[in-house]
Amino acid sequence: MTHVSIIGRGTMAQVISGLVEKSGSTVEVFGSADSGKPVTGDIVVLAVPYPAVAGVLAQRAAQFDGKVVIDITNPLNFETFAELTVPSDSSATAEIAAALPAARVVKAFNTNFAATLASGTVGGTPTTVLIAGDDADAKAAVGTLVTAAGLRAIDAGALARARELEALGFLQITLAAAEKLPWTGGFAVVS
Amino acid sequence: MTHVSIIGRGTMAQVISGLVEKSGSTVEVFGSADSGKPVTGDIVVLAVPYPAVAGVLAQRAAQFDGKVVIDITNPLNFETFAELTVPSDSSATAEIAAALPAARVVKAFNTNFAATLASGTVGGTPTTVLIAGDDADAKAAVGTLVTAAGLRAIDAGALARARELEALGFLQITLAAAEKLPWTGGFAVVS
User: Fold this and answer.
1) Which residue of A40, A53, A80, B23 has the fewest C-beta atoms within 10 A of its own C-beta?
2) Do residues B2 and B40 touch, judged by C-beta distance below 8 A?
3) pLDDT band for position B14 (50/70/90)?
């Protein structure tokens, strides 16, 4: 059984926590008041906004050595909704992986609105979690967790593909913020 | 009634030609043997692979002045399927727009597999064409054409968003090429 540590207490943290429980794995959740408590999970979910990731890494980077670390962030400029805040030839995941050379970093969940993770459906199509990373075992572990929670998982390729997953997340958020898509909908994956 | 010129005779050119006819507009199609024949459409669809666009522009750029030009390309490296061939802070559409300062260039159709344009559905969800560009009237004209053909259209924002549309197209093609998605499926837009 997998033990999962979730850093963050926002909507996505809560929804992913629920998925972990549904999958039959155990979960521990860390808020900002828990900075002194070390993570013990085999899988760690960075479920904080991208600007808060640097602070988490400053505090906990060594605790992530050897673990699977899931980056769920969409590094948007939330003031303008017009750009990402990471270099155009990089991604939040690539930046995090560079800061955590002893961890196995994967991108996942950033293309899923919280409501579609909770409901398991995007307009009638089963919710699919796209997973990118360079460590096949790490991706498989995340995929197993996702499918055990009743969702679909697709290996979207190498860590370099996090750039496209973040573009997809960016586009989906801007369209929902502009009320062109509902937060219960968005991009469904028809596989 | 809109008159549409389609440059290209491949699958996407054929499918888009069918959509134009279905919409009640008229269409003319240009193959490589038609280089001497000028385009007469109000809307021009560049339905050739991205590496062939430069040749079309070299031949016809002046003919596109004042027209709506639709870029449908996905500028993938089709040898590696690992990268786009345009600079990471740009897009095929931005490059084409820079080469056609007197035309009104929009991105559209690059996130739609041909089969889903022809069938009008992605796994039961109506096919949606995402349109990006800086000219509102040009985007509206393309949207009108798309909806008259029985599909849905969403204004995806400024021309700068073509970068994210190309990332989406890239991701969708790599997943289909890896047999993780069917060419009749992919990303459906639940709006």
Assistant:
1) A80
2) no
3) very high
Report residue B185: phi and psi, to 5°.
-120, -130
What is the C-alpha end-to-end distance of chain A, expressed in Å?
A: 28
For residue A66, how far is the Cα from the chain centroid? 18
> Which residues does chain A have within 8 Å of residue B84's beta carbon, measured at their own beta carbons?
none
- Res. A1 pLDDT band, cuts 50 70 90: confident
Name the average pLDDT for chain B. 97
Of B88, B186, B190, the CB nearest to A89: B88
ipTM score: 0.97
Domain A3-177 has CATH 3.10.129.10: no
Q: What is the mean pLDDT of chain A?
A: 97
> B53 to chain A, minimum CA–CA distance in Å?
23
Domain ranges of chain A: 3-177
Q: How far apart are CA A74 and CA A158, in angstroms?
A: 18
The token pair that represents A6 in the structure block: 């979730």
Sorting pLDDT into bands at 50, 70 and 90, what band is B1?
confident
Q: Are B56 and B48 in contact (CB under 8 A)?
A: yes
**Looking at chain B, which residue has its C-alpha nearest residue A187?**
B189
